[in-house]
Design brief:
With 170 residues, this protein is mainly alpha-helical. 60% of the residues lie in helices and 6% in strands. Strand 1 and strand 2 form a beta hairpin. The relative contact order is 0.11.
């Protein structure tokens, strides 16, 4: 059996997406991240090309290369990968939310709140509209987790819009 490796957040993203959606190429994973967890977890897309191969060498996923055509590599989660994902999901996460917002950093160091607010309002109103449109879409396969994450993201954007509206008025 292959040796264990340290599993990173990117490892868990790959395992989680393969668990949810089945077999995928690195390009498929990139598209899945953009449409889902990429809304709240940033990572270099290059990691989504490297990580599946690393997980395959350790036995967490299988790797199969197409015989013809573009000879893409297809990855599928193994029982070992599923067990690692389930273990990770069962561990409580007491870490606080990490907010890395360039506008908040600029505000802290003295940027004009009203000027900053005008730019931030457009950005956050657009994101809020995107989230609300997704909330109105069909519930899909009935998995609760993505919809709860969307709900939290929607609430966060509503509060952020409310904050910047206050700054724009003052």
């Amino acid at each position: 059996m292959p040796e264990g490796i340290d599993l990173t957040p990117t490892s868990h993203i790959v395992l989680g997406l393969l668990s949810m959606f089945g077999e995928a190429t690195p390009y498929d994973l990139k598209q899945m991240v953009s449409a889902s967890v990429g809304q709240f977890w940033t990572l270099p897309h290059s990691q989504l090309y490297d990580e599946p191969a690393r997980l395959a060498r350790a036995g967490y996923v299988t790797e199969k290369q197409e015989a013809g055509g573009r000879r893409r590599k297809l990855y599928r989660i193994t029982d070992r990968g599923q067990a690692a994902l389930e273990t990770w999901l069962s561990v409580l996460t007491p870490e606080p939310y990490v907010l890395r917002d360039p506008a908040l950093l600029k505000l802290f160091f003295g940027a004009d709140p009203r000027t900053l607010a005008n730019a931030q309002l457009q950005t956050h109103r657009e994101k809020l509209a995107e989230y609300e449109a997704l909330r109105g879409a069909d519930a899909g396969d009935g998995r609760r987790g993505p919809w709860l994450a969307l709900e939290l993201g929607t609430r966060h954007e509503r509060e952020t819009v409310r904050f910047w509206e206050e700054q724009a008025r003052e």
